[in-house]
Design goal:
Layout (H helix, E strand, L loop, with lengths): L4 H10 L4 H19 L2 E4 L1 H16 L11 E5 L26 H8 L3 E6 L33 H8 L5 E5 L6 H7 L2 E4 L20 E5 L2 H11 L29 E5 L8 H16 L3 E5 L7 H16 L17 H12 L2 H14 L5 H21 L5 E5 L15 H5 L6 H6 L3 E8 L5 E7 L5 H16 L1
Parallel strand pairs: 2-3, 2-4, 7-8, 7-9
Antiparallel strand pairs: 1-3, 4-6, 5-6, 5-10, 9-11, 10-11
């Protein structure tokens, strides 16, 4: 293995390692296992080789390529990449090549990273298993008969399989943290507005956020520092620089108040609950104070989300009409062309959510459904605010279960939606959260523990995450 991203970058920057050699190591692993795992929609091997050679040339000429020099990265295929197919794993964007880079893609490039490919996802990021892709499912590297989680399953699997050192995903209701838990890697959902959404193909604009996957908490912190910070191109971007996370990882948790949510919705498997209790005990042993808190509206997160997110999706996805880009199915007149294009181009789950969202926004139902969901969203944020008066961070399971078999829940959307029970409330509040691998459960499959923190409290969140990581790696 080529080691942590920070070690790769350090070696490339000081000339003791070659970016080309590092890349070839990762490409060899992709050649060996990618046909079975299907983490990628496209592997950019030639482009990556040219990029790695350029990085080595910069170092040879005495230049510093940046903090991610030579680090192989993968991008979820809903992030615009200039001249590279960007499909959102949907037929409706077939053949579309963006004329510009997303801000996060540009910042990775400026930091010296080497983009290896675009990863598979649930179509338009709608799903929890990466089975809702027009290009077939991604498989969990720990057990290829099981799902990697979703919707960023390809990005999580790429890191877990050793195809890249780090990757980017997007998180609308848990789409970074849940696959991170199922694949046994670190996954970070930053505060809303901390990372630019410019160039991210929208699902639900008030919920979407980009974040990193990594094998270590330190690598996740490094990538987040690179991609975070104000971006004038994104009207929701917070006007302040990225948080400094370079020193917090070694500060420990002495005196930190860690909240146990006593009214957390039930439903987690016993093996997952056991790992949560073990994590709480670990932090207490390390000097943290465990406090009981209540977040009453937490239990309503799932129902509020599945009104708000589909409503925003029905608006955002209206742009895919067969006129400006992507798939077009010809018909005798314009409205028939719209209908035929969308019927052919969208998958079943996307159609389901568009119809649900359009209904919730329709005349006569707006106040009863969408308006009420927004009020619940406010209650959740208020409950979190009260809880954080007593605790610095909160601890929950990330996923109620370990990775489940491929096909087990595809015919039961409600069972699939329950995968996001513990992750959705954070998106509704706009707060940061991180999933940290913390041992294994049934079938010796990975279990993730989730650290939740108040808005822009990433430094405290990473302190606790680092302590959990030390406990399982020491």
């Amino acid at each position: 293995m080529s080691g942590p991203a920070s070690d790769i970058a350090m070696g490339v920057r000081d000339g003791s390692r070659s970016a080309v050699t590092v890349l070839e190591d990762y490409l060899a692993r992709i050649d060996a296992r990618e046909p079975r795992i299907h983490a990628f929609n496209v592997v950019l091997a030639d482009e990556a080789r040219h990029r790695a050679a350029d990085i080595d040339a910069l170092v040879a000429n005495g230049a510093d390529p940046g903090p991610l020099a030579g680090v192989p990265v993968a991008l979820k295929d809903n992030m615009c990449t200039r001249g590279v197919p960007t499909t959102c794993s949907s037929k409706i964007l077939e053949g579309w090549r963006p004329p510009y880079d997303a801000t996060v893609v540009r910042r990775l490039s400026e930091a010296g990273a080497v983009v290896v490919g675009k990863t598979n996802l649930d179509e338009f990021a709608m799903g929890s298993s990466t089975e809702n892709s027009a290009f077939g499912p991604t498989r969990n590297p720990h057990d290829p008969t099981r799902v990697p989680g979703g919707s960023s399953g390809g990005s999580a699997a790429a890191v877990a399989a050793g195809f890249v050192a780090v990757s980017l995903g997007s998180d609308t209701g848990g789409s970074i943290r849940q696959p991170a838990a199922l694949c046994g890697v670190v996954g970070v959902k930053p505060s809303y507005g901390a990372v630019s959404r410019y160039g991210l193909v929208a699902f639900a604009s008030s919920l979407d956020q980009i974040g990193p996957f990594a094998n270590t908490v330190a690598d996740a912190a490094l990538v987040l520092q690179v991609i975070a910070g104000h971006d004038p191109a994104d009207s929701t971007s917070i006007p302040q620089p990225a948080a400094d996370l370079s020193d917090v990882l070694t500060e420990g948790v002495e005196g930190v108040r860690v909240g146990r949510i006593v009214d957390l919705p039930s439903g987690a498997d016993p093996d997952v609950d056991e790992r949560l209790e073990a994590a709480l005990e670990t932090l207490q042993t390390a000097g943290a104070k465990i406090v009981d808190v209540e977040v009453p509206a937490f239990t309503y997160g799932l129902t509020a989300y599945y009104l708000i997110a589909p409503a925003e999706a029905s608006s955002n996805l209206a742009r895919y009409d067969g006129v400006r880009y992507g798939l077009r199915v010809d018909a005798t007149e314009t409205n028939a062309m719209y209908a035929a294009t969308r019927a052919e181009g969208f998958g079943d789950e996307v159609k389901r959510r568009i119809m649900l969202g359009t209904y919730a926004l329709s005349a006569g139902y707006y106040d009863a459904y969408y308006g009420k969901a927004l009020k619940v969203r406010r209650l959740i944020a208020d409950d979190f605010e009260r809880a954080y008066q007593h605790a610095d961070v909160l601890l929950t399971p990330t996923s109620p279960t370990v990775a489940f078999p491929i096909g087990e829940r595809t015919d039961n959307p409600f069972a699939m939606y329950l995968c996001d029970t513990y992750t959705i409330p954070t998106n509704l509040a706009g707060h940061p959260a991180v999933s940290v691998p913390f041992g294994t459960g049934a079938g010796r499959l990975p279990v993730g523990v989730q650290v939740l923190a108040p808005m822009l409290a990433e430094p405290m969140m990473f302190r606790v995450a680092a302590e959990l990581e030390r406990a399982v790696t020491s």
